[in-house]
Amino acid sequence: MLVKKVSQRIWLIGIIIALLGLWGGWYLIINSPAETMELPNAYIDSNLVSLYLQPVILALMYTQILRFRNVRLLVGVRGQTNQMTKRLLILVTMYCLVFCLGLIVPYLFTSFPLFRNGNSILGTMILVLHVGILLFLAWVLVGAYNLKHPYLLLLIIFILEMAYHFYFEKQILIKYSPLYDPLYRAVHHIYGGY
Questions:
Q1: Per the count of CB atoms within 10 A, which of 10, 102, 114, 134 is most buried?
Q2: Do 43 and 124 touch, CB atoms closer than 8 A?
Q3: Given phi > 0 = left and psi -120 to 50 = alpha, else beta, which region is 112?
Q4: Using an 8 Å Cβ cutoff, are 98 and 17 in contact?
Q5: pTM of the predicted model, to two decimals?
Q6: Residues 93-147: pLDDT tens digits?
């Protein structure tokens, strides 16, 4: 009975994450101007994904990890702590991939170009790095399974995600295309969409 409840909860959280990804993808496509539409602009430069969707996804993953923390003592007595940690790592990896696929698949069904303003290799690397950072933060959250006071970890993860988005990612986007630099746009009188 307990296994069935846990299994249903895992699937429910997975479906919620997939639906959040799909909703976020369609929302970004509908609300982004067509003249500036490209993958890095829609998904990386906009704040919807990094400020709203990813913290919700990480919090949902965190609730799953804390749910499994209730049986930590029973798992530890049987010597299966490493096995449980591996399963949690696989679970959060699947959640991250489902979210990212749900976010990007709607864009693939549009006629907008993938990379319009910059090098496609650098643009792909930016997207892969963004997914990699999300995956790394989710893996760090799995550490809450073994921590004595796990709640501070979620706050640290949110701060790291915001710092990455607002500092590092914005700088990388400027290297991808100078159109993402506010000073460049002001000097060249480029307004809107970025």
A1: 134
A2: no
A3: beta
A4: yes
A5: 0.85
A6: 999 999 999 999 998 888 888 888 888 899 899 899 999 999 999 999 988 877 7
